[in-house]
Design a protein that fits this description.
The protein has 308 residues and is α+β, with helices and mostly antiparallel strands. The chain has five helices and 15 strands. The chain has a five-stranded mixed beta sheet. A five-stranded mixed beta sheet has the order 4-3-5-6-7.
């Protein structure tokens, strides 16, 4: 019997039944893309570290004369750095973790605490330099954690503060103090206490409404009391001094957030005049109200704005 020949379909040459070069390339590219996509499933880059979240702290409003504050709790306003204990970590108001030695937070509870990191009156520069360092160090031994609330404890303000006091009575830590409070009898008593604190170099007072809840953000249950107002401004220019201050800073030309510009020429130490806050930085200043043009009256430098 004769062998049958492979016959190509009618109208087609035998060569056209073989895979073309273009077809082979197409298949190769398809398979390559598929394999590349499959490999990418295992090459997804790891997510970077999460941005710190601000601590859920309670913030004071400014007290206005004439408010009925009889029976409110009164304490010194400490000029330090806010410290919020999350139950496992001590963080700043902005949520950044402080590099504290383990012994500083020894015996702390697993619930939140709120307080001030403090080295004493008129020592803001000192406490700032201590807490900004990125590694634990013995400078923290001069710091007291001044606790004024326990946000997650049960009850109103009095019960929450009692929880903190009782906790550290049974779990001592020499770096911890509970802020003392006294009952405010009336506005005259408030002003008398404010004068006493300021005479000692203190910043002012804090008022807390009895039995108040702890709520994050600005609260009508807590007020700060000072004889001056405080603001912040952007440094635009260093203006030269004269006389005793010749050859160094005379004043800062600054700008408020609303665009008003003015000069701050008082409140600087010699060291600050020799090495003034840089242009572009933010400074805090005290003043006694505003002119009709919106310029702060009797503005005096306090310090650079610190972001923690």
């Amino acid at each position: 019997m004769a062998r049958k020949r492979n016959i190509a379909p009618s109208g087609l040459k035998e060569e056209t039944c073989r895979p073309s070069l273009r077809g082979l390339l197409t298949r190769f590219l398809f398979v390559g893309v598929w394999l590349l996509g499959f490999a990418c499933l295992f090459l997804v880059p790891a997510a970077g570290p999460a941005e710190p979240q601000p601590a859920p702290v309670m913030l004071a409003r400014s007290w206005e004369p004439g408010m009925d504050i009889r029976g409110w709790w009164m304490s010194e306003k400490l000029d330090g750095i806010r410290g919020y204990w999350t139950g496992s970590q001590l963080v700043s108001r902005a949520g950044n973790a402080f590099a504290v030695p383990a012994w500083f937070t020894a015996n702390f509870p697993t619930v939140a605490l709120d307080g001030e990191l403090w080295t004493g009156r008129q020592q803001f520069a000192e406490i700032s330099s201590i807490v900004r360092r990125q590694t634990p160090h013995d400078g923290w031994r001069s710091v007291q954690y001044m606790i004024f609330d326990a946000p997650q404890a049960e009850g109103g303000f009095e019960r929450r503060l009692a929880f903190a006091r009782e906790w550290f009575e049974s779990h001592p830590n020499p770096q911890v103090s509970i802020v003392e409070h006294e009952t405010c009898r009336n506005e005259q008593h408030l002003r008398q206490k404010l004068a006493e604190v300021e005479a000692l170099g203190g910043e002012g007072l804090i008022l807390r409404r009895p039995e108040s809840a702890y709520t994050a953000g600005r609260s009508a249950a807590i007020f700060k009391v000072k004889t001056f107002q405080e603001g912040r401004a952007l440094v635009l220019e260093h203006l030269p001094g004269s006389g005793r201050n010749a050859g160094r800073l005379g004043s800062l030309r600054v700008e408020l957030p609303n665009g008003v510009q003015f000069a701050i020429g008082s409140g600087f130490s010699d060291a600050e005049r020799d090495s003034p806050p840089p242009v572009g930085s933010t400074v805090r200043f005290k003043h006694q109200g505003f002119t009709q043009a919106g310029v702060p009256r009797f503005a005096s430098f306090l310090r650079m704005q610190e972001e923690f």
